[in-house]
Design goal:
- By secondary structure, the chain is mainly α.
- It has one domain: Hypothetical protein af1432.
- Helices cover 68% and strands 0% of the residues.
- The chain is built from ten helices and no strands.
- α8 packs parallel to α10.
Length: 180
């Protein structure tokens, strides 16, 4: 199977798994837009060409947010992809505060591929917090999310300078926009 076919297979798989989900923002975008944006950020900003990382980016929320298993991803897309997906998957049995704390603690120990996925994920999420926040999120909650995102990204540094610089610029703009 060609790399392009495998990438499109991942997009199709993720779209089917996320088909009934919407983003939390006011626009209620289809959820699949998020993992596709994460992969797009990796190629456009991060200059990434590694197909396994891009596939893992597209699949990064399937285990966490759908009934997808690590075994399914391993069988369909290989061990390297499944490993990166699992590295960025939160344990939903834990309370949200604990999951957020663990993301900060685990960030420095992720593989380079998982670090880049996590970095692009934080970029995508902070862009949404600035431009299309959930209706019930206060300014304080939005600013707290941006700060938490910075804490996660602090442990991801040194993996992709372009993504890191983009993130840093985004944080400044996002804070200004949220406070406006």
């Amino acid at each position: 199977m060609s790399k392009t076919t495998k990438l499109l297979q991942a997009a199709n798989f993720a779209a089917r798994r996320h088909r009934r989900q919407k983003r939390k923002g006011e626009n209620g975008e289809p959820y699949i837009n998020h993992p596709l944006e994460v992969a797009h950020l990796l190629t456009r900003i991060g200059n990434l060409k590694d197909t396994d990382i891009l596939i893992a980016a597209i699949l990064h929320d399937t285990v966490e947010d759908t009934k997808t298993t690590e075994e399914e991803i391993n069988e369909m897309f290989g061990k390297a992809v499944a490993s990166m997906v699992m590295e960025v998957t939160d344990d939903k049995t834990l309370p949200k505060a604990e999951r957020k704390k663990l993301q900060v603690e685990h960030a420095p120990h992720l593989s380079d591929g998982a670090k880049q996925i996590k970095l692009a994920d934080k970029i995508s999420n902070i862009e949404d917090i600035a431009d299309n926040p959930p209706e019930d999120w206060s300014i304080e909650r939005r600013l707290e999310y941006i700060e938490w995102g910075e804490n996660v990204v602090a442990g991801l540094r040194g993996v992709n300078e372009n993504l890191e610089n983009y993130f840093d610029d985004l944080v400044v703009k996002a804070r200004e926009k949220v406070k406006a």
